[in-house]
């Protein structure tokens, strides 16, 4: 008997099948616990749905979809004030403002879906495509026409699974790489890491640590995160609005919801000067990986104290101490992450515009509108 494939779309984590987490074991970012965070504290311009993919009655795939409405943003980012940015903003507002994504726009990496290895992956992907069409209808009925459908982030070898007719009209593209830091087996302490650096980068480490003299770093509890919510948001927003391009801004309660939901799997580190919070960073434990999340800082103190660089060193020290295999440093600040030892992993996405004319020229539009990032890879280790 030929297996019957179907999908189910859920709008709440409480609706998910009991055995959902059996498939989510590969990544915390598709777990019920994490999806509940998105449900409670996603950016205001983002709507999330969760997709169950079934072979007969058996759950064989899980996926996350995010609908992003760029019309709700006052700004896409304030750093690049130029004609090209202005044109890009107009184009996005009018022709690309409604984006339906299979994947997670707040993270870097393949957090789009998990498919059981025992299933027919091609048939499950075909079913996922049907779910995307159903989601388009859901939003159309709400008066929101989807302009672009996309999937993100995949490494090169994962793209081959999409070589089926259902995904032929999708443009394959690559943007900034995911910066991955690999923790070496022989490193047992932060000092072992420092010893592996060449003299130039050991000097950089020493200089940064000396600059941070007087700062106090400590992990914040849920109550402390709630008490400092206004300051935390100001520090986050200062960094976020300075990015070259944004598709969302987090709500103020985001970090508190994260801590309440994930507890010890979510780490919030505050940096204090004279008992005043002047910066923070966040980490998520994801199996053997340590994922960096959002951060914030006072820019004047950041430069004076080399705060961002010190945060990177602190993350590395924690990962070594707790024996994680790698740190997912994600995108942005590529060169400074490279200077501490992170390596770029090229990531690919896929997208299709609903307008056939625009879709046929999507490659041109994308190359023109995508902010270009020029950077030099560093090689900080002695070997």
Give a brief description.
Helix content is 36%, strand content 26%. It has 14 helices and 15 strands.
Model regions low in confidence, pLDDT < 50 over at least 5 residues: 76-80
SS-derived structural category: alpha+beta
Task: Give the beta-strand count.
Answer: 15
Binned, the helix content reads 25-40%
Main sheet record: 8 strands, mixed
| CATH architecture annotation of the largest domain | 3-Layer(aba) Sandwich
CATH evolutionary superfamily of the largest domain: Gcn5-related N-acetyltransferase (GNAT)
Taking the alpha carbons of the first and last residues, their distance comes to: 58 Å
Q: What would CATH call the class of the largest domain?
A: Alpha Beta
Characteristic terms for this protein:
alpha+beta; eight-stranded mixed sheet; 15 strands; seven-stranded mixed sheet; Aminopeptidase; 14 helices; 383 residues; 26% strand; single chain; 2 domains
Task: Describe the SSE topology.
Elements (H helix, E strand, L loop, with lengths): L4 E6 L9 H4 L8 H10 L4 E10 L2 E12 L13 H13 L2 E5 L10 E3 L5 H21 L6 E7 L16 E4 L3 E5 L7 H7 L2 H13 L4 E4 L2 H6 L1 H12 L13 H9 L3 E8 L2 E11 L2 E9 L1 H7 L1 H15 L4 E5 L3 H6 L3 E3 L2 E6 L2 H5 L1 H8 L14
Parallel strand pairs: 4-6, 12-13
Antiparallel strand pairs: 1-2, 2-3, 3-4, 3-5, 6-15, 7-15, 8-13, 8-14, 9-10, 10-11, 11-12
Helix pairs in contact: 2-9, 6-11
What does it look like?
- The chain has 383 residues and is of the alpha+beta class.
- The chain has two domains: 5-175 and 347-369, Aminopeptidase (3-Layer(aba) Sandwich); 179-345, Gcn5-related N-acetyltransferase (GNAT) (Aminopeptidase, 3-Layer(aba) Sandwich).
- Helices cover 36% and strands 26% of the residues.
- It has 14 helices and 15 strands.
- The chain has helices at 20-23, 32-41, 83-95, 121-141, 190-196, 199-211, 222-227, 229-240, 254-262, 299-305, 307-321, 334-339, 356-360, 362-369; strands at residues 5-10, 46-55, 58-69, 98-102, 113-115, 148-154, 171-174, 178-182, 216-219, 266-273, 276-286, 289-297, 326-330, 343-345, 348-353.
- Strands 1, 2, 3, 4, 5, 6, 7 and 15 form an eight-stranded mixed beta sheet that branches. A seven-stranded mixed beta sheet has the order 9-10-11-12-13-8-14, with helices on both faces.
- The longest helix is centred in the middle third of the chain and has 21 residues, at 121-141.
- The chain is globular and about 65 Å long.
